[in-house]
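Sanity check

After download, print the first record. It should look like this:
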Amino acid sequence: PTARRAAVASPRVPVAPQLGVPKFFRWLCERYPQITSQISAKRTEDDYVDNFYLDMNGIIHTCTHGDGVTPNQTTEQMVQKIFEYTERLIKIANPRKVVYLAIDGVAPRAKMNQQRSRRYRVPKEMLQQARRAARNEGAPEPESLADAALANPKKAEPFNSNCITPGTEFLQMLGERFVVWLDQKTSGEWAGGPTVIFSGANVVGEGEHKIMDYIRGEQRAGRLTGDERHCMYGLDADLIFLGMLTHEKHFTLLRERQRFQRGKFNKRGGRGRGIMSLVDRAVVTMLAGGAVPSRFLAAYDDDDARAPAPAMQIEGKSNEDFFFLELGLLRELLGASMRPRMDDSALGFSWDGSRAVDDFAFMCMLVGNDFLPGMPHLSVEDGALNLMLRTYTDLLPTLGGFLTDKANLHMGRFERFVRELARYERAFMRGKAENLAGKESKQAQDNPLAYRRQYYLQKLGLHPNDTDGKRGLVKAYLSGLCWCLAYYHEGCKSWDWYYPDFYAPLASDLGELPGYEISLVQGKPFQPLSQLLSVLPPQSASLLPAPYAELMLSTDSPIFDAFPADFSLDANGKKQDWEAIALLPFIDEQRLLDAVESIDADAALTPAERARNVLGEDIVFTSAGAAPAPPPAAAAA
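Expected structure tokens:
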């Protein structure tokens, strides 16, 4: 135990927040530059929204350890900065009816695996930074973060971003401070203004999905007419999908500007400029061999399918450099671009642009999200979104209808769609192998089926002839797609479900899909401290109450093996370290909960620690004071 404690000492390490999916956002802005609008410096009373929703975790990360934040600021300075940033955003949006502030609470198990991966990376990345700094200074490289701290005892101890997790003392304190601050604001200078709803970290659910639950509740209750102006703030790309899937006519996102390379994904015409993407190379390879219909060549060669780079220049970011992303306009443009060039009689069914946009949100799940790994031959940087859109438009007239109907997936149509995508799998994997070195890569080029054998053996430990193993993987992946559809359209349908591997099956193995029976069990969320234990690395054990930390650090713990002090990363063909897959053991839920049950909370925890493990509810603030929000069922009624 002593050696283990020494190995994970000095946990306080900073890491820049990795929120959102920059590649997807970049792709959108380059394909549809007209969807962004600048915020005028001369805003009037007519520049307002009715309902403003804030996904607060981006604000918290930015104000505690974002770019330009001093490393030695006090907790009080952080809190005040969070309040100031929140108020600045509210002034920009100028809401009239409702302000909804949501901090991430306990997430579904499907998300907790990704949270665990992110939090385990923090100490690993910081040790790498310390070693690079030591090399640059000609000093010995530290073996651990404890060694790095001893080598620089006067260096300011940085902020541990892992404390921005439900169940920590930091978020408990921040929630309590927010309640006091909002009560003062709504009874003071905000009196007579919009109703404010605060959903703290003690309320279960991810922030953006608590917001979606609220919006759906208002829709079901008939309190939205369709003419309201909605605005959501947040850095997560999921907000783009979620905002569009509300199908509210007036919906915008408020975002900070970001710096990215202009014209990376949608260069006009795409010929003779830079390096061809692997997906485009796969398409060209198949076209040269006559393996796809000529109508696909027309779609591929169509300049209209490759929008010009955005006219706007995205420069540096400042605290006041924001813009609006018009989701209503995006929905219209996206739906129009997905429609085959034919009328309904030739199409075979009635066209509905909103249904097509729903299908687009579903297709984007195939490149990966917080809950599922992307399919091996599909990634945004390699042109997968353009490929899927072209394939969808080309194939739709033969499908007889859309891929999805809200939370329901049409397995037969999806199988035909994914079978078409699988036609480019071999060419893509061959192109990927050409970028690698070694005998196995050469085999993947020479043998048409070698890439399949190599992928399943190396990544998944499955023998190519293990039919049952592959079917189990396909069923788990289909369950994940159905879970995600339900999560985006209706809310969490299973708190227990998670995808049990790091890698997706090959697209060419997604066959006979209507024969799979998919069922999801509702289950229930973890308690905050159990969730905290499951996602934190041992380097952050100090963020847990002592009895929980002992389950992580003591060799006598029945779940000691679940918390490695180190782990491997699989680059999996990606260039950036943060894109690599963290090969961590999956938490055995029952073993963890049994271990937690052995803790006598009344005797072993302080009153403050017990309070961190209590689930709460939304709080509504008006000029008349604060009160609990009605439960969703009451709102729906």
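If your output differs, re-run the checksum step. Summary of this record's structure: The CA atoms of residues 76 and 126 lie 25 Å apart.
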